[in-house]
Amino acid sequence: MKMLTAIIKPFKLDDVRDALSEIGISGITATEVKGFGRQKGHTELYRGAEYTIDFLPKVKLEIAISADQVDAVISAISSSAKSDDEGKIGDGKIFVSNLEEVVRIRTGETGSVAL
After folding, report:
1. For 12-46, what is each residue's pLDDT tens digit?
2. How many structural domains does the chain have?
3. Chain-centroid distance, C-alpha 22
4. Domain that holds residue 33
């Protein structure tokens, strides 16, 4: 089992959710987060004053999947979260880590059956 964590632009959430649904992924957890990387934030003008915005809004997706689904999920997220054909700084990242155990609270099922 694997835990896939993806950081994407907020307006790409619906596209990513649709792409994951098409390959049979039915459950994701989405959290609104803020962060920065190479994008480094930007400056905005508000009522004549200039403000530096260091942390940009992002969406963090967490998806628990079986090991054989990793490549398909990465491909679906990558293609649907990319800005255009070439991509842009700030499109996001995907992290894959091992998931030792899963327990479905309602039934007590464990392992891949609980996914």
Report:
1. 999 999 999 999 998 999 999 998 777 666 676 77
2. 1
3. 16
4. 2-114
Residue type, 27: G
The CATH code of the domain that includes 94 is: 3.30.70.120
* pTM of the entire predicted model: 0.84
Distance CA 113, CA 19 (A): 23
Furthest-apart CA atoms within the chain: distance in Å:
58
CA 115 to CA 108: how far, in whole Å? 12
